[in-house]
């Protein structure tokens, strides 16, 4: 099998990097090298930014309707190429093909939302706000935007960034994850096939040096980041020091509350899918289940469900979860499982050392379940990012809310109940940015904003929805008066009054 060499994308063309540093992109189920990706040089990053800066001069003046038509074409191309994109995701990330296709669908939602740009970017008008004075606002693009994405959603996360940024008239520099870049690059090719002009969307690759250069660059006006809390915090501070807008969507520790009145089978199946799907490599995975009152009696069913989940390569259509993205990720997850044992948690299902027939080198960790987990334990404090579920039991809804609110993160939480009163009380009192009611992964549809909170987010405005339009535009307010041709001034007005 030939090994792909991942290009940059600059000024509307794939460009081979001249870097001396390249990394292997590996199929996590087999350890087969499927591609090589460069860590771009500083000069190459400068070239990408310069291309975007030059393209902004003309792109910002392209009519809204033409930008809309490009987005319409892009959404059609993504839909037509879903299977190809999903296969690339599975090959390099490891998630199952159905899960990968679902990811493409969630990214597609954002592009579909961007197709409404002709109404999304409208300003406001107050006619005759003062004597023959009109006041109105213009929502104008910022200039060059940039995005840095994590490995776990190589299609959805770029879609959280560049479609709305470009649709609002900005140009863009994207740095995808070096661990699984091929699907992102195919998405960028489709964007250019849809009609995005040269220089409007550019791609560079690399590690911390490239990310820092993007954060520091004075020609980049706004930066969107999705990834770990450590990296996101560092980049947020660098970007702020460089005077740019920044949104940082970071780590999580999400909880799923199960009330005793919930639909038992629905709640259990949903929480297991949320905890173990994509091998737990989702920032919105519910990695902690809080069983309230008599719902603790459902533990045996939860354990049994955990044991019946099927692990296999992502190409195995009946697999529930695939491998972790890398041997390093596997080692870290297994190390945290060991820490949970040592710190006193009760390990009821152990996924360490999991073997899948025919795939001896795969980064597999089986579904793992702990009970008797306390907030002081490492497995509760850290985001494991693997197929590990921590079970906590409490007596009342009040205790569940207090327990969740004490956690510093605020990305997402869910509750399963058949009581409208309980659900309303939970959504009102829980201090978490995104809430699911009988929905295990509460990522909202794309025309609502992604609203993680507290330690899971830095910056006031999140991706998608109205907040993304506000993030990628600046508001210019115009106060205008037009005099009649023969109007004569009645004298100097030295007051602040508009008259």
Structure description:
Keywords: NAD, Oxidoreductase. Residues 16-478 form the Aldehyde dehydrogenase domain. GO terms for molecular function: methylmalonate-semialdehyde dehydrogenase (acylating, NAD) activity. Helices cover 36% and strands 22% of the residues. The protein is α/β, with parallel strands linked by helices. It folds into 2 domains: 4-250, 3-Layer(aba) Sandwich (Aldehyde Dehydrogenase, Chain A, domain 1), CATH 3.40.605; 254-437, Aldehyde Dehydrogenase, Chain A, domain 2, CATH 3.40.309. A 7-stranded mixed beta sheet has the order 15-16-17-14-13-19-20, with helices on both faces. Strands 10-9-8-11-12-22 form a 6-stranded mixed beta sheet, with helices on both faces. 51% of the residues are buried. The model has no long low-confidence stretch (mean pLDDT 97).
Task: Chart the SSEs and their pairings.
Blueprint: E1 4-5, E2 8-10, E3 13-15, E4 22-26, E5 33-38, H1 42-59, H2 64-80, H3 82-93, H4 97-114, H5 117-120, E6 125-130, E7 133-141, E8 144-148, H6 156-159, H7 162-167, E9 171-175, H8 182-193, E10 201-203, H9 208-216, E11 220-226, H10 229-241, E12 245-249, E13 254-258, H11 264-276, E14 286-292, H12 299-308, H13 327-342, E15 346-349, E16 368-371, H14 378-381, E17 388-394, H15 397-405, E18 409-410, E19 413-416, H16 420-429, E20 435-437, E21 453-454, E22 457-458, H17 465-471, E23 473-481
Parallel strand pairs: 1-5, 8-9, 8-11, 9-10, 11-12, 13-14, 13-19, 14-17, 16-17, 19-20
Antiparallel strand pairs: 2-3, 4-5, 6-7, 7-23, 12-22, 15-16, 18-21
Helix pairs in contact: 2-4, 2-8, 3-4, 3-8, 9-10
């Amino acid at each position: 099998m030939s090994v792909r060499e991942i290009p940059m994308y600059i000024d509307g063309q794939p460009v081979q990097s001249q870097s001396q540093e390249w990394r292997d992109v590996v199929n996590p189920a087999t350890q087969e090298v499927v591609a090589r990706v460069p860590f771009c040089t500083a000069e190459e990053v400068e070239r990408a930014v310069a291309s975007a800066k030059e393209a902004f001069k003309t792109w910002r003046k392209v009519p809204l309707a033409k930008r809309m038509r490009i987005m319409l074409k892009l959404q059609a191309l993504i839909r037509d190429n879903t299977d190809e994109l999903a296969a690339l995701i599975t090959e390099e990330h490891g998630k199952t093909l159905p899960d990968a296709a679902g990811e493409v669908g969630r990214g597609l939602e954002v592009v579909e939302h961007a197709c409404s740009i002709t109404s999304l970017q409208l300003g406001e008008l107050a006619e005759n706000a003062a004597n023959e004075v009109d006041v109105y606002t213009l929502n104008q693009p910022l200039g060059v935007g940039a995005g840095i994405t994590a490995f776990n959603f190589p299609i959805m996360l770029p879609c959280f960034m560049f479609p709305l940024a470009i649709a609002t008239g900005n140009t863009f520099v994207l740095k995808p994850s070096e661990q699984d870049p091929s699907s992102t690059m195919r998405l960028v090719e489709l964007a250019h096939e849809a009609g995005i002009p040269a220089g409007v969307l550019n791609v560079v690759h690399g590690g911390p040096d490239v990310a820092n250069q993007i954060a520091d660059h004075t020609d980049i006006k706004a930066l969107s980041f999705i990834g770990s809390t450590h990296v996101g915090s560092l980049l947020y501070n660098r970007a702020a020091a460089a005077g740019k807008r920044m949104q940082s969507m970071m780590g999580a520790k999400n909880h799923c509350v199960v009330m005793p009145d919930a639909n038992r089978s629905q709640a259990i199946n949903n929480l297991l899918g949320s905890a173990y799907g994509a091998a737990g490599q989702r920032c919105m995975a519910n990695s902690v289940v809080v069983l309230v009152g008599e719902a603790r009696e459902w533990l045996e069913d939860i354990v049994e469900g955990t044991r019946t989940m099927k692990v296999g390569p992502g190409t195995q259509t009946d697999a529930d979860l695939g491998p972790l993205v890398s041997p390093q990720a596997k080692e870290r997850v297994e190390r945290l499982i060991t820490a949970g044992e040592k710190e006193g948690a009760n390990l009821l299902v152990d996924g360490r050392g999991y073997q899948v027939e025919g795939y001896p080198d795969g980064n597999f960790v089986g579904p793992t379940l702990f009970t008797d987990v306390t907030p002081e334990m490492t497995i509760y404090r850290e985001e494991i990012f693997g197929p590990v579920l921590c079970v906590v039991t409490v007596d009342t809804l009040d205790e569940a809310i207090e327990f969740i609110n004490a956690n510093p993160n605020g990305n997402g939480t869910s509750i399963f109940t058949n009581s409208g009163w309980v659900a309303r009380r939970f959504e009102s009192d829980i201090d978490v940015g995104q809430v699911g009611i009988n929905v295990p992964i509460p990522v909202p549809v794309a025309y609502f904003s992604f609203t993680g909170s507290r330690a899971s987010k830095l910056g006031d405005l999140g991706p998608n929805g109205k907040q993304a339009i506000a993030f990628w535009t600046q508001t210019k307010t115009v106060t205008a008066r037009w005099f009649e041709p023969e109007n004569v001034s009645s004298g100097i007005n030295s007051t602040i009054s508009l008259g």
